[in-house]
Amino acid sequence: MAPLNRYLTYFQISHVNDEQDWYSDMLYSTPRGYVPTTPLIDNHVLNDRESCLKLLIGGEQAAFPDYSIPASTAAEVVAKLESDQRKPTCSACHYMVRGSIRWTVRRMERDVAHLAHHMKTRHDTVLTESSIMFTP
Question: For residue 98, what is the DSSP state?
């Protein structure tokens, strides 16, 4: 058995912890009674069958979801990113917490793959040009 890469293991665990904190903060910051049109998903669960981290049994391969989007959609998103130099915000997340004084939605990377990953894993939807926005 190969030794664990401690740095990678620490990074994975701290990433999961950060994402769990972010999810909790988003729920806490959502105004009471708000029903999102695009649900927020807790995709960094550790205590169920679909845990985001698990030990693989000998010969078992890690499964990575496909976050690809059509080339035409990617081009639309790139054009929107090029229209503004600020980091984008997820529109669904922004609308969830916009009425809250407790939280501001975080900026995202200016990268189509990163944005597609967020939309699929956090909202179970496909990235479109309207999925992102730029806020002051």
Answer: T
Domain span including residue 25: 10-53+65-133
Instruction: Tell me how many domains the chain contains.
Output: 1
29 in any annotated domain: yes
Indicate whether 58 belongs to any domain: no
The pairing of beta strand 89-90 with beta strand 132-133: antiparallel
Please check whether residue 2 lies inside any domain of the structure: no
pLDDT tens for each residue of 2-36: 555 555 566 667 877 888 888 888 888 887 887 87
What one-character-per-residue DSSP string does 26-90 give? HHHHSPTT---SS--------SSTT-SS-PPPTTPPP--------HHHHHHHHHHHHT--SPPEE
Contact 34, 96 (CB under 8 A): yes
